[in-house]
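Lay summary

Proteins are chains of building blocks that fold into shapes. Our project writes down both the chain and a compact code for its shape. Here are two examples, one after the other.
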Amino acid sequence: MAEASRNEKYTGPYAAQQERYDRLFGGARAKARDFSEATGNPADLPEDLVRSRETVPGGWAHALPLARGETLRALNTHGTPGVSLLFYNAKDRSERFNAGDTVKIQWNARLARGRVLFSDMGRVLASITDDSFGHNDALTGGSTPASNEERYGDATLRNTRDNFILLASKNGLDKRDVAPCLTLFAPVGVDGEGRFIWEGEGPAPGDYVDLRAELDLLVFVSNAPHPFAPGDYAPRDIDLIVWTSPPPAADDFCRTATEEAVRGFENNARYLAALGEE
């Protein structure tokens, strides 16, 4: 569903549902804070803040731990159209990223700066604290052998589904644990017929997204093009930078952007208190 502007009343086919949502939740969606502008953080982070740097070649994948309070910067060094991620609670890997709830709870399918990533337990796994591109897809999922066959005529090309299954097998999981993913740098929209489409030019070299861990995480990253990405199959290197970000303030924009996010962090607080990690 295409999102109406903040000052325009939605009149599309789901207008009745939106009116009911706003009535039940007191217009929380309309009151959501606007964080569409990137913060202007420098692309070059001070080395004393950086814990690790990894380069993931085009088509390949990588798994990495991310401690609570650390930030993962996905740096799209060459403008690759799509980088897919999965997130697991490192202390209980049965808890993982829930794409459907992340979109539904925040009433927003175009995930960008200021939004958070919910788990299937109603907790916040990560926050999007900065985003120079501003359009990340949690609706259509990553590439598969079937999508590569349809798009490029070659099912043997490396793809996100197989990449995630391989990473799962190396980390005590299996293909049943591979849930729908988040794909960064993927401007997916919906046309008038309700079909998913690729909008615009895609990312430019140097675009980046910062994801701050709100729990200890295991993160899977697949550097394979989005299934709707235009052009030939030509994924290029991306860089993953893990750095120590500042502790969030009481009015942190991700934690206070919506009432739903506030409740998610309340769930985090109860969980961490039970673990003795307040």
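And here is the second example, written the same way.
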Amino acid sequence: MKLFKTEQGIFLQDNTAVYKLVQQWDEVVNRDDLFNYLTGITSTAEKVTHNKWQENLLPPIANQEVWAAGVTYLQSRDARVEESQTSGGSDLYKRVYDADRPELFFKSTPQRVVGHLQDVSIRKDSTWNVPEPELTLFINSKGKIQGYTIGNDMSSRSIEGENALYLPQAKTYDKSAAIGPCLYIIPAPISKETIISIVIKRNGVSAYADKTPLSRMKRSLEELAGFLFRELTFPDGVYLMTGTCLVPPNDFTLQPFDVVEISIDGIGTLINTIAYNS
């Protein structure tokens, strides 16, 4: 099942059938058994027979914060080590990759999040900017994973590489997080063989492309969720980006008007255009 938030309301896609829901987003998603709940309401929800419901998609979020995990893949560790060589912080990333406790950081408030076909931003004061495609979890207020979406954890590598303490500035700014196009709800945990892929287009031509299976992640999704909920509460649930190992080469940096396409098996494709904040 796929749950879409649009300017026209909330729509549930169940195979080829589409239903319009009357509930508010937080009321729908923050449940212990979201899949069975959505299965049940299809008997009473309004069935939609036109395709206009797909227009004007919004990010699938209301009052949820967005958090992120870092250095969960070996390639991500190596990239962080390389970018921080001159600052002397490379050992930090080696140690956190092997540590019991994962790296978790606050990414975005809901109003700073963008959705499918909306612009994501790069910082004007950064010389090295990349997207980070990530499987993103929706976790309910009790700490249980209920759904999945695609996340783009935009990153200013020149800023983080200069000093690890600059991580909040490298990661958190207006339009630095994209999620969508939907919330994907399935009755069992997502397969470790799920493929995450990215294509970055410049002037309509692929400038970078790669893919990876979820199985390359060192930590489990449940482990990351468990650490996030230690000493933290999320009354409406929370989104957690789970890290990336798709890292463009060091001579690549995003430019305005580049188009980033991130796809995850089962969920779909999240497309965003690069821009500066006005």
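What can we say about the second shape? The two ends are 37 Å apart (CA to CA).
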